[in-house]
Amino acid sequence: MLRRFIVVLVLTATNTVLAGTAALQNQLANHPSPYLAMHAEDPVDWQVWNRATLQKARELNRPLLVSIGYFSCHWCHVMQRESYQDPLLAKLLNDYFVPVKVDRELAPALDAHLIEFVQLTRGQAGWPLNVFLTPDGYPMLGMTYVPADRFRGILEGLRDGWNTDSPQLQRQSRAAMAQWRQIRDSDTKKTAGLSALQGMRVQTDQLKDELAGGFGQQNKFPMVSQLRALLWMREQLDDKAHDGFIRLTLDRMANQGLHDELGGGFFRYVTDPAWQVPHYEKMLYDNAQLAALYLQAAGQFQSPYYQSIGLSTLDFLLREMQRDDGYLISSFSAVDEQGREGFYYRWDDAELEQLLTGGQIEAVRAAWFGTQPAHSEYGKLPIWQGTAADIAESLGWSATRLDEVLASARKKLLNARSGRSLLADDKGLAAWNGLALSALAAGYAATGDARYGKPADRLAGYISDSLWDGDHLVRARDGTRVIAEATLEDYALVAQGLWDWSEQDPQKKDRYQKLVEQMVRIAWQRYYRNKRWIQSDTPLIPMLDGVVALDDSPLPSPTAIATRLSRQHPALKKDTELQNRVDVHLDQVRAYLGGSIFWYASYVELLETE
Description:
Elements: H1 2-11, H2 34-37, H3 51-60, E1 64-69, H4 74-84, H5 87-96, E2 98-103, H6 108-122, E3 129-133, E4 139-143, H7 148-187, H8 196-207, H9 224-237, H10 243-255, E5 269-270, E6 278-279, E7 282-283, H11 284-301, H12 304-321, E8 331-332, H13 349-355, H14 358-369, H15 388-395, H16 399-417, E9 424-425, H17 430-447, H18 450-467, E10 474-478, E11 481-485, H19 488-502, H20 509-527, E12 528-529, E13 532-533, H21 558-568, H22 570-573, H23 576-593, H24 604-608
Parallel strand pairs: 1-2
Antiparallel strand pairs: 1-3, 3-4, 5-6, 7-8, 8-9, 10-11, 12-13
Helix pairs in contact: 1-7, 5-7, 9-11, 11-12, 11-17, 14-15, 14-16, 15-16, 17-18, 17-19, 18-19, 19-20, 19-21, 20-21
């Protein structure tokens, strides 16, 4: 078992100490990534992830610590405060390792590679992600957040083991990588047994929470790709078996702790099965996908409520996340300037009594706060305590009066909230802006309203003029400076966004569909090799050989998107060689991944319309 194999790398360590030569200094000052820049004052000599850093590790013969996180991650901030700002821990890292800080949003291929390693060896993975590599790039040991005292012990054990017998640790890490490849290969040889449609039905029934909605019984994420697959089955195949579950899930996501009742938009996930306690990051990719999901559901269920949630989410994106150049920023942090998680969104009784009139307090307590526990020293999060009709009846009010009083209270609370700090990661990532463009196109299609059409046009122009140079796409820019090259997900999600907007903009349809054609062709040419998909064509360290398909992570599967566009685009449909590739790819997905189709839900439509 690979997990057992990796543990040997630390347990064989002895206690010989050989200090390395001090040769590094922190390189993160004024970095355009807010996540990396916030580590510029750490006493750790953080390096950036590039070829020169790897060469430095080889020259010094030191292991690398690759520490991956992102700006809006709460536990990333905690580990920085506890460990990376500790001078004694910093000295250990600086003297015996090459410490590297990575913004996962700028290096998704590296992040996915090391996430898979930690998932396999630890059983679970997340962020902050901390992985120790040999100087030639083979993973030795990985973990997520650990307290400072435990982290110090890990550093000391690896230091001693490396100084005692680094050749043995390098041999073991190479062997572990070979075993990792065998495990992945064995997984792709399992046949499906069920059709995609049957598999999606069975696995949905196995994983759904029929009482509270959503999937699973612990942390709950939006799982947009799976819900959109169920809506596609409902619309195209008249499969309404999951109608009750879909509506329950949509309702709970919209009126409980995942949704910001005051300011609009959704948090990344909740930490309990009842949707009460969120982690307070607000991500562009979640909100773009959820806006489109609610608009899709509004059309199918003829629901003004779902449409209002979808449009208000777009309004939040445009009001809070859009920047002057037309792009949308990546996220808002879970913590404020003082490191208080969720403080921006919570209210205590004293604040409510200071800000609101008696009638407003009565209304918001009945509608949003009730007798729920605070879950935080900073007060309570506004969460609907029942239906508006039931709450109005309990107060002896009309529904109109309740709506008017809540609207006036909301205005006061939002005005007060504007005086609090909310930290933003202002990177404009290509893939995530592609999702935003698709969502704005959906908003414009549903309403014909220029308040969605004009920003969609600006965003399409920003992507095509600033992120695309006629030959290749970049993932993000800081002014004229490229801060990350594009990966497969950028080509796929940007192409989808441009395709969706081209359907709403007849004047520029030919231009954008020509660009979609170029991007989809590049996706197949650069990222599909030997019947396997890779995420990046410029890896700096040894990687695995690719996968049959990429799954639906928080982002929709980019391989499914590239495949679907290849079937839809008029010019691509005429390309016999490309269509043969598509056929081979879909046959592989059907044969090898159908048994886990729930995690590849974006493929259901493709496999059922073949």
